[in-house]
Amino acid sequence: MVNKKWSRRFFIGVCITPALLLLTLFMVVPTVQVFRMSLYSWGGFSNNQEFVGLNNFILLWDDMNFIRSFQNSIVLIVFVALATIIIALFFAYLLTNAKVKGSSFFRIIFYIPNILSIVVIAGIFSAIYDPESGLLNNVFGMFSLENLEQKWLGNQKIVIYSVAGALVWQAIGYYMVMYMSSMASVPKSYYEAASLEGAGKMRQFFSITLPLIWTNIRTTLTFYIISTINLSFLLVEAMTGGGPDGSTEVFLSYMYDQAYTNSTFGYGMAIGVVVFIFSFVLAAIVNRITKRDVLEY
Amino acid sequence: MMKSKNLLLTISFVLFSLVLVACSGGDETTSSKESEGKSDADGKTTLHIAALESAYGSDMWTKITDAYEAANENVEIELTIEKNLEEIVRPNMQAGEYPDVFLLATGRPEALTETLIKEDGLENITDIFDKNVYGEDVTVSDKLLEGFTDTLATNPYGEGDTYLAPMFYSPTGLFYNAGLLEEKGWEVPTTWEEMWELGDLAAEEGISLFTYPTTGYFDTVVGSMLYASGGTDFYNHTMTYEDGVWESEEATRVLETIAKLADYTHPNTVANANPNDFTKNQQLVLDNEALFMPNGTWVVGEMAEAPRAENFEWGMMPIPAFEDGEDRYAFTFFEQIWIPAAASNKDAAEDFITFMYSDEAVSIFLESGAIQPVQGITDLLEGENKMYYSIYDEGVLPAMGTFASTEPVPGVSMGDTLYGAIDSVMSGNLSYEDWQKNIEEASDKLRPAMN
Amino acid sequence: MKKKAKGLSTDFLYKLFIYVALITLAVSIIVPVGWVFLASIKENAEFYGSPWSLPKGIHFENFIEAFRDANMGDYLINSIMVTGLALLILLIVALPAAYVLSRFHFKGSRFIHSFVKAGLFINVSYIVVPIFLMLLDWDTGLRAMMGDGFFLNNRVILALIYASTALPFTIYLLSSYFETLPSDFEEAASIDGAGYFKTMFSVMLPMARPSIIIVVLFNFLLFWNEYILALTLMPGEHKTLPVGLLNLMAAERAAANYGPMYAGMVIVMLPTLILFIAVQKRLTQGMTVGGLKG
């Protein structure tokens, strides 16, 4: 029996050690470095690193540009999460419950934006949003809705939603497939029973589908937070460069700006620390307030 | 069981890496400071040149390399020429491998040159200008055009020591369709008053007075206007962040004028003023939708293949004067060549820089349209270029310079506050009073950080 | 009779509404993506007109230019190597770890579980510089000892780091799949006298195939499209495709030469499209069984 115990331990050790080592080496150690560098003043090239304590964080508090990038990021996270959930649930419900011809065709097409490189997406959307020849304004023109035409990337009040639009476009398919898979495991008999009682499609969705896939939706909320922070940075860099006048600056683009362009590397890392803690806390809060009793079926 | 062997291999590899971390933890400071010259077996010095490939193309650099290797047999040149030079070179530099000579101007979005200035990473090259041009009997300073080594653009710390040598200059100004103005019988405006009048006339025809590629192009406009408003000394005060300078009458006049320009700017401008779409704004001028845009002579080549209105013909004018009879300025943009302080072959690098002003090099550059700031250069020019470069022959004054370098200040960027905010001024989201206040605040924060 | 007609028409309206919604979204995806393909065969002068006009001819020289002048061919090979190797490392490391974490309870297993989950929050974009500085340090150490660096500009190291940064998500996904498997199989294997390793390799891993396909697809997309790490850690010649594309875009935009830029986009996009079409059936199946239960 001792032998058995040891071989179990050996097995567990062999299986998880490589993963833990790699995680520590390439994820934990660099993260600790980010935290450490946030306490220094350093330009990025020379060897004179000066310890400044929490000074970088104190400066952040007064930096209006940082606060604006903070607001922009929050707007993006909230808007992208809400819009994607609603649209993805809607189409997932249609494709699983309505007998649609060519449903697998639609499923494939809807997923395509998610496999594109963000660089390609930026190229596509700057053509869509073009004020003169862009698809969006042309479509509005076609339906005589000229008053809806906009400078999608020029109007500073809406440009952040234009960025959000591109992010939603690329995210719908991914989350839709995810919701579809959990909807598929809801037993058909539930709907049949509800239908006999006279509940309409809407009723059925809210009283059967939604509660039963709630756990799945909760999990995706965390994904929205993480991926929006990351993707908004990549997209903004490639599409608007943070402009006009910083109105699409987000967390990480501002961090890069400060770490490199403004040669204040330590300050940039301090922004990184704030983003990290913020995303962690936000996910924890969202997780807490969305907690419901799990319904089993 | 093959797979568990793989696992063990991975583990031992990772362990090995960990040992390395432990070994190399302590020597952070020794990395980059080896400065002995590299020479290969036959005694030749290998000189590493890093140059930005701009609109002039890369051919001229290979020709220059060949010409210099022919002239100086002790040197072998290794050339890095890239359009995104910063991205290529930065990691190597952080790894301690510095090129010996850089051709990379300030004012690029990646700001690598500025970073090195802030970090004291440039070699003092003041003595180059007393040396003879390589292979010739004239000193560099005798050959250079006047004024090119007197500004903060070459002497970033302001003390008369030169760290960057001037290269390829180009006048900038407001570009327009000369054919359109002629056809409509409109005069080229010389004062802002005439500018507004023309703006109203053009508006009746559905043409906007003004557009700009991106806000970055305002550095030359604002520079010229500051010169025009207060003269050289005033300009230098603004560039060295003097207290209250942005709230002075002269500066207010400049900012107010730009704010007024907002009413005359093509409505699509702000939407396209990003690195992706700025050519669409330039296209507005080609399509007769907007009259003027700030730009440099490179725009001609940049838009060479673009479709354009009938009878289109490029014209360039200086920034208008504030009052009739006052001075008009056209900002001179030039690139810079410099030696990193961490370079390994500094002497050879200095010789190479003097060669840039030799007759041979000047004519190689000229073939590709790159104009060196040397005596007698305007006589060598032809065609459109002659028109642009002779702008100064007609009483228009050259303006040059840039902001004084500072220690990095977290969260404060003069470029963003002064130029970047123009998008907001144009779209009406920022009044010029608030803009002025922000600039003065940024200036206050940068003043103590000047080095 | 009347009632029936009305019923039919609401049903019809409902169907109509469904199809309009589905087709709108489909069009909003097909048109822009198709546009990139069309733009890649356009001639330069066509880009100044309406971007929605159809190409006037087929200009494959855009692709030739992208491959020859911008080295996209070499970058393609680099990308294939790095992505393939990273996937291999990832599977070798993540599968056993996920298996053990979900099927065994031992001292510290809860802690390790949350440790891995916390890794989901570490964003590659902000640890890339510390990673670079770390490799740089090792290289400087190595140079002092052997006169040459090893860690930077190394496709194998890049693949290793890709695999490491993908571990949290992959382990998370795989272990939630393993949790759903009934324990009968292990018990049966144990009665047959199979050891832990044998049970894992011959019983559990084969059962995990559907979720392995998901993991491969997701991470393929991730690795293939990644550019921040590749840009920083590969300053030398072994660039990957997205970095090459960025260079190409910077170059062609500066020269206002748009055709090859879109050709480059197509070169980056095509492999992911092909792989996706090939495995898309498995994808939905796998997601169904693998699910993502929190």
Q: Distance between the terminal alpha carbons of chain C, to the nearest Å?
A: 51 Å
Describe the sheet with the most strands of chain A.
2 strands, antiparallel
Count of discrete structural domains of chain C: 1
> What pattern of helices and strands is seen along the backbone of chain C?
HHHHHHHHHHHH
CATH homologous superfamily identity of chain C = MetI-like
Q: Do you know the CATH topology of chain A?
A: MetI-like fold
- The rough form of chain C would be described as flat
Class of chain A in CATH?
Mainly Alpha
Radius of gyration of chain A: 24 Å
Number of helices of chain A: 12
Instruction: Name the strands of the widest sheet of chain A in spatial order.
Output: 1-2
Q: Which architecture of chain C per CATH?
A: Orthogonal Bundle
Mean pLDDT of chain A: 86
Uncertain spans of chain A, ≥5 residues at pLDDT below 50?
none
Number of strands of chain C: 0
Structural class determined from secondary elements of chain C? mainly alpha
- Corresponding CATH architecture of chain A: Orthogonal Bundle
Biggest beta-sheet profile of chain C:
none
What are the salient characteristics of this protein?
heterotrimer; A: about 300 residues; mainly alpha; MetI-like fold; 12 helices; 2 strands; C: about 290 residues; flat
